[in-house]
Amino acid sequence: MNDDTLTTDTLMSPGEIRLLSSLGFMAARSGHVVPAIRIFEGLAVLRKDKAFPYVGLALAMICVGAYGDAVNVLRERGLAACPDDPEIEAYLGLALQLAGRTSEAGAMARELAERKDLASGLQALVAMVSEIADGHRSGELPRPASVVTSMDTTGN
């Protein structure tokens, strides 16, 4: 096979992409942030025109409290690759809220609430960010899980 015939579809099947994505999200949720970031960086190369690698990178960053970095990834990379993507915009609202940028988060959430193409899970996320930003919901957004790196698990 020469370089002209290599495409992202020949490198990995859609099923393999889904499996890697699932592993990346599980790693991020369980605090294995470095492997999650590596997985999503690779997926961003293979599926640069899809939202999920950028959302995955942002969620991994949120898990370590790097809220500003999550905002940057979603704005600079995610929206550049997928303009007006509702999933990226919803998670951007979350990252902005976590970063303490309440007015920006509220404005984004109110704008997203007007869209008709939001999945129910995204609608719930947008509503929660909007309520907190507007002061109609007490409490805070969930905080990140404890972080476990590969060094922690190998004893090195």
Q: What number is the mean pLDDT?
A: 83
CATH class: Mainly Alpha
CATH fold-level name: Serine Threonine Protein Phosphatase 5, Tetratricopeptide repeat
**Anisotropy-based shape:** globular
Look at the helices and sheets and give the structural class: mainly alpha
Order of helices and strands: HHHHHHHHH
> Could you estimate the helical fraction of the residues in percent?
55-70%
Report the biggest beta sheet as strand number plus sense, adding barrel if it closes: none
Tally of structural domains? 1
Our Rg estimate from Cα atoms comes to 17 Å
Distance between the termini: 41 Å
Q: Name the CATH superfamily assignment.
A: Tetratricopeptide repeat domain
Number of separate helices: 9
Which segments are poorly predicted (pLDDT under 50) over 5 or more consecutive residues?
143-156
Strand portion, in percent? under 5%
CATH-level-2 architecture:
Alpha Horseshoe
Give the beta-strand count.
0
Describe this structure in words.
The structure is a single chain. With 156 residues, the protein is mainly α. The chain has one domain (14-139): Alpha Horseshoe (Serine Threonine Protein Phosphatase 5, Tetratricopeptide repeat). The chain contains nine helices and no strands. Helix 2 (14-29) runs parallel beside helix 4 (52-63). The longest helix is centred in the N-terminal third of the chain and has 16 residues, at 14-29. The protein starts with 7 loop residues before the first helix and ends with a helix.
